[in-house]
Amino acid sequence: MQAVVLVGGFGTRLRPLTETMPKAVVPIANVPYIVRCLSYLEENGVDHVVLSMGYLPEPIEKVLADRPPSIKVEFCVEDRPLDTAGSIRYASGKFGELEDRLFVLNGDILTDIPLGEILSFHISRNAAVTIAAVPVADPSRFGVLDVEPDGRIRRFVEKPRVPPSNLINAGIYVYDRRVLDLIPDGVPWSVERQLYPEMLERGEKLYARAFEHAYWTDIGSLEGYLKANFDSVAHLNSTSRFGAGYTARWRDRVPAKPMSPGLWIHESALVSEHANLHPPVLIGPKTRVERGAIVGPSAVIGAGVLVEEGAHVSESVVLDDVLIGCQARVKKCVLSSGARVMEQATVAEGSIIGPMTVPAA
């Protein structure tokens, strides 16, 4: 099967983390998102992927430089933004000969939705497009799908005050090949605002396949990014759920087994026996945690990090080469690579800190 993954966005909700890296390579439990995404696709029978890229393509290419031959990955860089539908059409040209059906994925979702079930549903309904849908507690924050009992889509409703359902677009699609011909070539064109509404007006069959119990989260917001990391740590021993990282280079970022339930410490990390660790916790290579430090609950720490004496890190993601000084406090935050939190400093909850210094208190 073939798949296009849309990874060209700016990742504005994760700035300043995404000022120096595209959203596709932000780490999820110490493994770049795109590595986990490709692992998920491979596990679901996809063998040829085109990445539709725009913003900062070079880091994505570098991360995937040693990809294995088991899945063919091609890069498609836009000269100018083509919006969602335009990007799909442009990227699909990389396949050469298109198969009858094509998977399309947003490049900012972490999920275990089985692609085979979407495909079977799509074929059974003779659909032009099938959209994977998931229920959410507050659909008013999203674009909502209004569907018939058999799943056929009546309309798309953007952030309604009174939602017609609790189903939202999960960012996974199956397209019949002919749908690509409905997208103007080389022109910015939107899936949500142009392609799908026009298809509904023409009477085309657009269906939603609901996955009531699947795991799904959007990594593009701070809340979703933290959740994706902590959930991934909670399921590190279940590789089929999130993908374990599909090269030895990235598998080495994650310990082979936990020291105790929910506690994953890389063999090259140095953790004082007088430090306090509260699972779920993942500590990466060559990181040092000093005596009296408190890590967790819910903490993902990258490589080469120093957590000094008495510091407290919880509900946070810390990327590589970060200093967290003595008695510093970090909660519900993301610290980008190179950040320095000085002695007794407190990082405001809900912050994303770039490669800067948070001064001492």
Automatic annotation (TrEMBL):
PROSITE patterns named among the record's database cross-references: HEXAPEP_TRANSFERASES
Domain Mannose-1-phosphate guanyltransferase C-terminal, chain residue ranges per copy: 278-354
A Pfam family it matches: GMPPB_C
InterPro entries: GMPPB_C, Hexapep_transf_CS, Mannose-1P_guanyltransferase, NTP_transferase_dom, Nucleotide-diphossugar_trans
Positions of the Nucleotidyl transferase domain: 3-229
Source species, domain of life: Bacteria
GO molecular function: transferase activity
Record-linked PANTHER family: SUGAR-1-PHOSPHATE GUANYL TRANSFERASE
Entry's family note: Belongs to the transferase hexapeptide repeat family.
This protein's name: NDP-sugar synthase
Organism: Candidatus Fermentithermobacillus carboniphilus
